[in-house]
Amino acid sequence: MGQIKVTKCPIEGLYVIEPTVHGDSRGYFMETYNQNDMREAGLNMNFVQDNQSMSVKGVLRGLHFQKQYPQGKLVRVISGRVFDVAVDLRKGSETYGKWHGVELTAENKKQFYISEGFAHGFLVLSDTAEFCYKCTDFYHPGDEGGLAWNDPAIGIDWMDVHGVYGGTALAKGYALSDGTPLILSEKDQKWMTIKCKGDKK
Q1: Which end of the chain has fewer CB within 10 Å, C or N?
Q2: Three-state SS annotation for the chain
């Protein structure tokens, strides 16, 4: 027990989780998930699916959510560096439409737990990044929802992204400070703003 440190974020339902790392001249060992420690910290989620992705520098994935089958996600980076973001979409929440971001790297070994009811996305800041996450519900085809990553009403500061908002989620005209163009999937460039999504508090 006591192998993790859990820190609540300014938005209720978001947590930064830091494991205890045991290192010596050979390398290191850590527990990346322990149900007993999570429950002791008040986190009683039940995970049913693990996912992993690899992305190159400048890739922005998001902002994603499931409509009828919302997922809680425990996310971490095992290689590289990303800026990970959650946006509160819970109806009636005092922080509806607000965002919180955490830098996740292979070195800091931080994890970010995002409860059900949030949109989620991340930006790759290293040459490549491998991203892992555990989910509290399965992926349901046809239940996908999304928000424009650059919605001015949300106002996410993506750390190293520069460009001028042109009224859509298109990546054209955006780049990182070193000139790396922003890369989004075709689908992620079609998401609408939170106002167009139509949810109300």
Answers
A1: N
A2: CCCEEEEECCCCCEEEEEECEEEECCEEEECCCCHHHHHHCCCCCCCCEEEEEEEECCEEEEEEEECCCCCCEEEEEEECEEEEEEEECCCCCCCCCCEEEEEEECCCCCEEEECCCEEEEEEECCCEEEEEEEECCCCCCCCEEECCCCCCCCCCCCCCEECCCCCCCCCCCCEECCCCECECCCHHHCCCCHHHHCCCC
